[in-house]
User: Which sequence fits this backbone?
Protein backbone atom coordinates (compact mmCIF):
# COMPACT_ATOMS: atom_id res chain seq x y z
CA UNK A 1 0.00 0.00 0.00
CA UNK A 2 1.17 3.53 -0.77
CA UNK A 3 -0.16 6.98 0.09
CA UNK A 4 0.11 9.50 -2.71
CA UNK A 5 -0.42 13.24 -2.91
CA UNK A 6 0.21 13.59 -6.63
CA UNK A 7 -1.21 16.59 -8.47
CA UNK A 8 -1.77 14.37 -11.52
CA UNK A 9 -3.68 11.72 -9.61
CA UNK A 10 -5.41 14.00 -7.12
CA UNK A 11 -8.11 12.21 -5.14
CA UNK A 12 -8.05 9.18 -7.39
CA UNK A 13 -10.49 6.31 -7.28
CA UNK A 14 -10.92 2.88 -8.89
CA UNK A 15 -8.31 1.15 -11.08
CA UNK A 16 -5.39 2.69 -12.97
CA UNK A 17 -3.48 -0.01 -14.83
CA UNK A 18 -2.26 -2.44 -12.17
CA UNK A 19 -2.87 0.08 -9.37
CA UNK A 20 -6.14 0.40 -7.43
CA UNK A 21 -6.82 3.86 -5.99
CA UNK A 22 -9.12 4.85 -3.15
CA UNK A 23 -9.62 8.04 -1.16
CA UNK A 24 -9.74 7.51 2.61
CA UNK A 25 -10.19 10.49 4.97
CA UNK A 26 -8.69 12.88 2.42
CA UNK A 27 -5.73 10.67 1.49
CA UNK A 28 -5.32 8.79 -1.78
CA UNK A 29 -4.38 5.17 -1.09
CA UNK A 30 -2.70 3.12 -3.84
CA UNK A 31 -2.65 -0.68 -3.80
CA UNK A 32 -1.48 -3.27 -6.29
CA UNK A 33 -4.36 -4.95 -8.14
CA UNK A 34 -4.92 -8.56 -7.04
CA UNK A 35 -6.94 -10.39 -9.75
CA UNK A 36 -7.13 -13.71 -7.87
CA UNK A 37 -7.98 -13.18 -4.22
CA UNK A 38 -8.45 -16.37 -2.23
CA UNK A 39 -11.55 -16.44 -0.05
CA UNK A 40 -11.42 -19.66 1.97
CA UNK A 41 -14.22 -20.12 4.47
CA UNK A 42 -12.26 -21.41 7.43
CA UNK A 43 -14.18 -21.54 10.73
CA UNK A 44 -12.14 -18.63 12.06
CA UNK A 45 -12.88 -16.47 9.03
CA UNK A 46 -16.59 -17.28 9.13
CA UNK A 47 -16.71 -16.35 12.83
CA UNK A 48 -14.85 -13.10 12.20
CA UNK A 49 -17.23 -12.12 9.40
CA UNK A 50 -20.20 -12.79 11.66
CA UNK A 51 -18.65 -10.66 14.40
CA UNK A 52 -18.05 -7.84 11.93
CA UNK A 53 -21.63 -8.04 10.64
CA UNK A 54 -22.92 -7.77 14.21
CA UNK A 55 -20.49 -4.94 14.90
CA UNK A 56 -21.86 -2.92 11.98
CA UNK A 57 -25.41 -3.43 13.24
CA UNK A 58 -24.42 -2.28 16.74
CA UNK A 59 -22.64 0.79 15.38
CA UNK A 60 -25.58 1.98 13.31
CA UNK A 61 -27.92 1.62 16.31
CA UNK A 62 -25.55 3.60 18.55
CA UNK A 63 -23.99 5.99 16.01
CA UNK A 64 -25.01 9.32 17.63
CA UNK A 65 -23.31 8.39 20.92
CA UNK A 66 -20.28 6.78 19.22
CA UNK A 67 -19.39 9.62 16.84
CA UNK A 68 -18.16 12.06 19.48
CA UNK A 69 -16.68 9.61 21.95
CA UNK A 70 -13.39 8.54 20.40
CA UNK A 71 -11.51 11.82 20.62
CA UNK A 72 -8.13 10.15 21.20
CA UNK A 73 -8.29 7.78 18.25
CA UNK A 74 -5.34 7.28 15.94
CA UNK A 75 -4.67 9.78 13.18
CA UNK A 76 -6.85 9.11 10.11
CA UNK A 77 -8.90 6.60 12.11
CA UNK A 78 -12.66 7.17 12.12
CA UNK A 79 -14.83 6.84 15.22
CA UNK A 80 -16.43 3.82 13.55
CA UNK A 81 -13.05 2.10 13.09
CA UNK A 82 -12.04 2.89 16.67
CA UNK A 83 -15.32 1.47 17.97
CA UNK A 84 -14.89 -1.70 15.90
CA UNK A 85 -11.28 -2.16 16.99
CA UNK A 86 -12.24 -1.84 20.66
CA UNK A 87 -15.22 -4.19 20.56
CA UNK A 88 -15.31 -6.62 17.64
CA UNK A 89 -13.59 -9.43 19.57
CA UNK A 90 -16.49 -9.44 22.06
CA UNK A 91 -19.25 -9.73 19.45
CA UNK A 92 -21.29 -12.98 19.26
CA UNK A 93 -20.18 -15.35 16.50
CA UNK A 94 -23.75 -16.16 15.48
CA UNK A 95 -24.83 -13.67 12.83
CA UNK A 96 -27.93 -11.65 13.70
CA UNK A 97 -30.13 -9.45 11.55
CA UNK A 98 -31.02 -6.63 13.92
CA UNK A 99 -29.68 -4.64 16.86
CA UNK A 100 -32.07 -6.13 19.42
CA UNK A 101 -30.78 -9.63 18.72
CA UNK A 102 -27.15 -8.51 18.96
CA UNK A 103 -27.69 -6.64 22.24
CA UNK A 104 -29.71 -9.52 23.71
CA UNK A 105 -26.42 -11.46 23.79
CA UNK A 106 -24.99 -8.71 26.08
CA UNK A 107 -21.61 -8.38 24.34
CA UNK A 108 -19.04 -6.30 26.20
CA UNK A 109 -18.89 -2.92 24.46
CA UNK A 110 -16.88 0.15 25.37
CA UNK A 111 -17.12 3.83 24.65
CA UNK A 112 -13.37 4.06 24.75
CA UNK A 113 -10.34 5.94 23.46
CA UNK A 114 -10.48 8.40 26.35
CA UNK A 115 -7.80 9.51 28.78
CA UNK A 116 -9.84 10.66 31.77
CA UNK A 117 -10.65 7.25 33.24
CA UNK A 118 -13.66 4.96 33.43
CA UNK A 119 -17.12 6.26 34.29
CA UNK A 120 -19.12 3.57 36.11
CA UNK A 121 -22.82 3.29 35.25
CA UNK A 122 -25.46 1.48 37.29
CA UNK A 123 -29.23 1.10 37.18
CA UNK A 124 -30.64 3.37 39.90
CA UNK A 125 -34.30 2.67 38.97
CA UNK A 126 -36.18 1.04 36.08
CA UNK A 127 -36.00 4.34 34.18
CA UNK A 128 -32.86 5.85 35.74
CA UNK A 129 -29.09 5.43 35.31
CA UNK A 130 -26.40 6.67 37.69
CA UNK A 131 -23.08 7.64 36.10
CA UNK A 132 -20.25 7.83 38.64
CA UNK A 133 -17.03 9.64 37.74
CA UNK A 134 -15.55 10.24 41.21
CA UNK A 135 -12.30 8.59 40.16
CA UNK A 136 -11.46 11.46 37.80
CA UNK A 137 -13.70 14.32 38.92
CA UNK A 138 -10.62 16.32 40.03
CA UNK A 139 -9.60 16.56 36.36
CA UNK A 140 -12.90 18.14 35.29
CA UNK A 141 -13.91 21.77 34.98
CA UNK A 142 -17.17 23.65 34.64
CA UNK A 143 -18.01 23.63 30.95
CA UNK A 144 -17.00 20.04 30.31
CA UNK A 145 -19.77 18.04 28.67
CA UNK A 146 -21.62 14.93 29.85
CA UNK A 147 -23.34 12.81 27.20
CA UNK A 148 -25.40 9.65 27.55
CA UNK A 149 -27.72 7.55 25.43
CA UNK A 150 -30.04 4.60 25.82
CA UNK A 151 -30.99 2.31 22.96
CA UNK A 152 -34.56 1.20 23.70
CA UNK A 153 -35.32 -2.43 22.78
CA UNK A 154 -39.07 -1.85 22.41
CA UNK A 155 -38.92 1.25 20.17
CA UNK A 156 -35.56 0.36 18.53
CA UNK A 157 -34.60 4.03 18.89
CA UNK A 158 -31.81 5.88 20.69
CA UNK A 159 -32.66 8.42 23.40
CA UNK A 160 -29.81 10.93 23.69
CA UNK A 161 -29.08 13.47 26.44
CA UNK A 162 -26.34 16.08 26.90
CA UNK A 163 -25.56 18.60 29.62
CA UNK A 164 -22.82 21.03 30.58
CA UNK A 165 -21.29 20.02 33.91
CA UNK A 166 -22.10 22.40 36.75
CA UNK A 167 -19.97 22.85 39.90
CA UNK A 168 -22.39 20.65 41.86
CA UNK A 169 -22.03 17.82 39.34
CA UNK A 170 -18.24 17.86 39.63
CA UNK A 171 -18.31 18.02 43.43
CA UNK A 172 -20.74 15.11 43.62
CA UNK A 173 -18.90 13.10 40.97
CA UNK A 174 -22.24 11.66 39.86
CA UNK A 175 -24.85 12.44 37.23
CA UNK A 176 -28.24 10.73 37.21
CA UNK A 177 -30.27 10.43 34.02
CA UNK A 178 -34.00 9.66 34.02
CA UNK A 179 -35.08 8.17 30.69
CA UNK A 180 -38.41 8.75 28.97
CA UNK A 181 -39.14 5.04 28.92
CA UNK A 182 -38.38 2.35 31.50
CA UNK A 183 -38.21 -0.38 28.86
CA UNK A 184 -35.24 -2.70 28.51
CA UNK A 185 -32.25 -1.33 26.63
CA UNK A 186 -28.53 -0.69 26.53
CA UNK A 187 -26.99 2.46 28.04
CA UNK A 188 -23.74 4.34 27.43
CA UNK A 189 -22.30 7.59 28.73
CA UNK A 190 -19.12 9.62 28.69
CA UNK A 191 -17.64 13.00 29.57
CA UNK A 192 -15.68 15.07 27.09
CA UNK A 193 -13.63 18.12 28.05
CA UNK A 194 -14.66 21.53 26.74
CA UNK A 195 -11.60 21.63 24.45
CA UNK A 196 -12.63 18.23 22.96
CA UNK A 197 -9.18 16.76 23.69
CA UNK A 198 -10.00 14.21 26.42
CA UNK A 199 -12.91 11.93 27.20
CA UNK A 200 -13.82 9.20 29.67
CA UNK A 201 -14.50 5.54 28.97
CA UNK A 202 -17.69 3.63 29.79
CA UNK A 203 -18.88 0.04 29.37
CA UNK A 204 -22.32 -0.88 28.06
CA UNK A 205 -24.97 -1.26 30.76
CA UNK A 206 -27.80 -3.62 29.80
CA UNK A 207 -31.32 -3.25 31.16
CA UNK A 208 -32.61 -6.75 30.37
Assistant:
Amino acid sequence: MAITNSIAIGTGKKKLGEIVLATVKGRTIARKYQPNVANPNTPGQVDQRSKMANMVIAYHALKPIIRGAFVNRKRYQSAYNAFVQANVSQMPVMRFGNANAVFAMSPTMWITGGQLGEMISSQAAPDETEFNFNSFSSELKVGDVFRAAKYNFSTEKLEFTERILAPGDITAGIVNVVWDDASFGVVFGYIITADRKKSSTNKALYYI
Summary: The mean pLDDT is 86. The first helix runs from residue 43 to 66.
